[in-house]
């Protein structure tokens, strides 16, 4: 990436004219719009694009890509701006391609349990559209993210322990490539062995190989019934070991979320709940009433063996929603613990047997750092986050936080895990990915990137080490 | 691919010397060994390699690849030779890399439910090694294939409806690339969003991007209990519609296999069973006794609604094994219907709602062709095969069979499905893949192939359209 990419420079006037002719008022150079698109939920300083293109169709995306390709101007796809890794920032300038107006649910096929959506459709919007079908789209990263963004970052969240991640739930894609060609990957069949798995290559490619314009996702039958329990433990270790044994027992748990006492304290303050401030698991059991009964009996026994002190049930739907809403607000609740701060969120994911060790070592590292960082996460997948609270103006603190974050990555990688379970690589994790993928892995990623985007105009500065 | 690749020519003597120095007697130029390695279960004429390298370690694979790369000589990975699509044949000559001596189960990690194996380990071997752990490796393509071969073709089989395919069950790979570098993909964590999904790119790449030297697979808890039922239907349509409704109801069925009356007839002759010769479903239900009871009640009701005539239970383990063994022998049973014939196996996979239409249209096309072709398959995934029985010496019949095969592919693709559910592309389906992937899809596949294997020495003539 070089200077000619336009940081601090104006876009070529001919490009501006061409994009204005194509999109009219939906092509914006306004500083307010640009500032909004140069900001996400990460701790990275804002980096606005030089312009924003509010595209409304695949044809328009093709036009925008072709025009920018001609001038070698970067393209940064933008959904809802809820990235935690700086995916939407524009470190090399360029045009932010905002797909929020591509927000149509194109098809719901209840018989084949799939939906075809435009990339700007959010997960809540899709689930609202599914009401009455008996089906739902389970992937739930917390934020009401766009499905395009979720596919691009291989998102997952609380339901992944049962339903998998975007990796398992994207069936097919329409993608505009770096030269404006339109690629369609996948079919509507449940499985295939018909050539390279391009769908899986593009899922998680973070806008660096193409811009998604259509996503076919799998839907799932709504569970017949569900039950939610909040279980308090005497120690973090006891909670995490209950999870390990639950997973190893093969119980098809719906969700299982861990929150340490700091997270629970943050939630109580933020969401006005009155949960006991101790290491806690939120469980959801799903299925027929009999299946739930079996699961509850088994998990209950495991929890008691590990000293669970309290099993409280949320049986009414409103109560359950309130609990999950509080869980989903946990990130903001944590941030709110320290006014004016920003959060550096870590995203370790380890093999389940190493979860207790990973979490306990994370706790020790946090304590040693002197920083505040609640621990919480989707422990059924071996995935947990710490939210390191920092004053963005305090360079020394930022440095300490980055050292801590790197330490947590190293712990996860040394235990056979990964630096990123679900947030993606974005700007901040490229060095960690390099270590994880090794020299050959980095070379292969670069070779693929170069083969599909030789000029490096697609979301430069992200993912590829 | 050009002539210099060596068809009909000798391997460069310096290469022979180098490989002999490296492998000793495990490097073979014997015509018997070569003939064996130029043959698989497909209908393609044998195409022996120029030599066979029986490798025993990753280091040896690296040596063989480096040497062949230097001389531009093709490399064809070889596992058990059970491919149905000509994957192991050597249309451009070259060296067959036989991994059958790399047959060590390197690690069984019961706590994380994974195993690390060398590519020559077969699925039955792995399951034998897992005895006593309470875990199993479910992917079951029928043949006792090597796990390397199964990963390379993205295999699946009877259990995929519940456990997924090799796509879902390979966690990590070690791969020797075209220039001899060793790539390690994936981690032991259950999920990741740490860069391009190289594991999924290599799974299903059929030896065209690299040679697998180590595979980390997911294991699953053995079901607490299981029950098998054989159900006879008045028509193919009734059987298939029962499947559609079973899947749509969300019952977590263990397996559901369809066999038409011709397949049942073939099985009775071959495996000495006395099944009623009618369209039939083999069901397997898995779980706790209560869960099985619930599933059986639901599926039983659906089957009766569709006119099921007979529900017979195989409750004893030996009886169940005998039934599944008979199912697994179905391919050979079909071939055996017509002595001396070979089978062209089609591998359509369609969205579940289109399964009845696909199967009925397939039946009509077979009838119109005048050829014999039993229909059977893993219908819970929308995947079914026809085994077109042909006299390989009869050119006119071969042509009719190929026309029929193309027609069946067209039916599947027109219904939103794929030309290959699980057998891979190999030699025969490249044109079909081109139609399915479209112009941009073919271009992307070629770009990836060229980026990772610029000289085209890895399994040339396979997969890439």
Automatic annotation (TrEMBL), chains A, B:
Which E.C. number(s) belong to this protein?
1.1.2.4
Query: Top-level EC class, please?
Result: oxidoreductase
Q: Which SUPFAM superfamilies does the annotation name?
A: FAD-binding/transporter-associated domain-like, FAD-linked oxidases, C-terminal domain
Record keywords: Transcription included? no
Keyword Calcium listed = no
- What are the residue boundaries of the FAD-binding PCMH-type domain, all occurrences included? 45-222
Against InterPro entries, the record matches this protein to:
FAD-bd_oxidored_4_C, FAD-bd_PCMH, FAD-bd_PCMH-like_sf, FAD-bd_PCMH_sub2, FAD-linked_Oxase-like_C, Oxid_FAD_bind_N, Vanillyl_alc_oxidase_C-sub2
Fetch the PANTHER family from UniProt. Answer: D-LACTATE DEHYDROGENASE, D-LACTATE DEHYDROGENASE, MITOCHONDRIAL-RELATED
Question: What protein family does this chain belong to?
Answer: Belongs to the FAD-binding oxidoreductase/transferase type 4 family.
Protein name as annotated: D-lactate dehydrogenase (cytochrome)
The record lists the organism as Tepidiphilus baoligensis
